[in-house]
Amino acid sequence: MQKLTATTVKQAKPKAKPYKLSDGGGLYLYVMPKGKYWRYKYRYAGKEKLLALGVYPDVSLGRVRKIHAEARENLALGKDPSTLKKAGFLPRVLGVPSANRPTLNPNSSNSLSSASLALRSARFSLVSRP
Predict the structure, then answer these.
(1) Residue ranges of the alpha helices (H) in the chain?
(2) Model pTM above 0.85
């Protein structure tokens, strides 16, 4: 499944139009005129979705493959990786430091929805302040 190499990623040069270098399993490097971005394309609940995994070289090929594997595991368990990212359940590279990342309690079906609700209310309180 993995066909990109660190050398291929490093040597990818921006062109006039953006292009993709696939690593397999929905993971690819999106090379744009202004930078290189890791993306994961997947389907959830019958809809195609796209998850941003980081910017190269801040996120290496090895690191992004680990994040991709974690996202695929969650998808196989029926959890949307985008929702988990927003709720802070994915690694620091995706925006939440590991020390502050909430833990998912497998015994509680409500833990993800309550974390999502807390995130939404925090955003709302930031927006609604005078």
Answers:
(1) 6-11, 61-76, 81-87, 111-128
(2) no
